[in-house]
């Protein structure tokens, strides 16, 4: 038929390289240039449109971290940032904010915590030139109609 096929997702948890591995397991021959993810679009935007040259504090998935790294943008924040059981928000907040951070990028993060929200808010509040970029505008994730719960989207 001569049709070109592209794979597009708002998923920021899986990098294009990892999608390639998945497609390969299914015996599908797919080129990296045929895969577009929210993580890739965000990294491309930061590098080529904004021409960003600082460090990113991110709330998001491993794929987002990998895509930012792939375009040469250093990033911090992926993974767990747990809160102690006896955490008192008024007295126990004592983070060393990285002076090189110039943007906060937010996407779906299965490890979201109050620590991450405090850090992201603090980076944005300390410097009016600190960028805030969201990978996608979803306020919730889709769930089967038979389920009566809501899964928040990107840090809703």
What do you see in this structure?
By secondary structure, the protein is of the alpha/beta class. The chain is built from four helices and eight strands. It has helices at residues 16-25, 38-49, 62-70, 114-126; strands spanning 7-9, 35-37, 55-59, 75-76, 101-106, 131-134, 140-141, 151-152. Strands 4-3-5-6 form a four-stranded parallel beta sheet, sandwiched between helices. A two-stranded parallel ribbon has the order 1-2. The longest helix has 13 residues, at 114-126. It is globular. The protein starts with 6 loop residues before the first strand and ends with a strand. 27% of the residues are buried. The model has no long low-confidence stretch (mean pLDDT 89).
Shape: globular
* Structure class: alpha/beta
- Described by its quaternary structure, the protein is single chain
**Total of helices:** 4
Q: Work out the number of β strands.
A: 8
In percent, how much strand structure appears in the residues?
A: 15-25%
Helix and strand sequence? EHEHEHEEHEEE
CA-to-CA gap between the ends?
42 Å
Descriptive key words:
alpha/beta; four-stranded parallel β-sheet; 4 helices; about 30% helix
